């Protein structure tokens, strides 16, 4: 059980840093704005995505009811899959930016599996 908790916290903190802290710090940078326009998203989408990422990452870190955490996990899974599809359509399937969201999706799945194992709620 101790190894499961350690794995849970390591993977959850990786998601928190990648999806909560980094976007909060760098979402207004020129590189982030160029990335959104490169993927042909409207400019307001970045602010909306930022708000949801920060709220979702806080839900994963702070104790909340289990069903709320399930929605946060589902939201991040949707974000990662959508990011991979968006990059795949624009940049091609073999681009690193297309593959990277799947790596974070795997980390998210490990976090979710450990979360369910620790708290023994039905998957």
From the helix content, strand content and strand pairing, which structural class follows? mainly alpha
Please give the number of β-strands: 0
**Residue-averaged pLDDT:** 91
Beta strand %: under 5%
Share of helix among residues? over 70%
Query: Sheet with the most strands?
Result: none
**Helix-strand string:** HHHHH
Number of helices: 5
Subunit organisation of the chains? single chain
What radius of gyration results from the CA coordinates?
15 Å
Catalogue the unreliable spans.
Answer: none
Globular, elongated, flat, extended or rod-shaped: what is the shape? globular
Characterization of the model:
It contains five helices and no strands. With 123 residues, the chain is mainly α. It has one domain. Helix 1 (2-26) packs across helix 5 (96-119), helix 3 (44-61) runs antiparallel to helix 4 (66-91) and helix 4 packs antiparallel against helix 5 (96-119). The model has no long low-confidence stretch (mean pLDDT 91).
Keywords:
123 residues
Task: Give a short overview.
By secondary structure, the chain is mainly alpha-helical.
Would you spell out the secondary-structure blueprint of this structure?
Elements (H helix, E strand, L loop, with lengths): L1 H25 L3 H9 L5 H18 L4 H26 L4 H24 L4
Helix pairs in contact: 1-3, 1-5, 3-4, 4-5
């Amino acid at each position: 059980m101790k190894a499961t908790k350690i794995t849970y916290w390591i993977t959850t903190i990786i998601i928190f840093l990648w999806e909560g802290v980094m976007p909060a710090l760098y979402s207004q940078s020129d590189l982030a704005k160029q990335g959104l326009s490169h993927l042909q998203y409207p400019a307001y989408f970045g602010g909306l995505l930022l708000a949801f990422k920060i709220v979702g990452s806080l839900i994963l870190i702070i104790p909340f009811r289990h069903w709320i955490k399930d929605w946060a996990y589902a939201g991040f899974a949707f974000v990662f899959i959508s990011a991979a599809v968006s990059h795949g359509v624009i940049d091609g399937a073999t681009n690193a930016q297309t593959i990277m969201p799947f790596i974070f999706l795997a980390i998210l799945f490990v976090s979710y599996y450990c979360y369910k194992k620790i708290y023994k709620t039905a998957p």
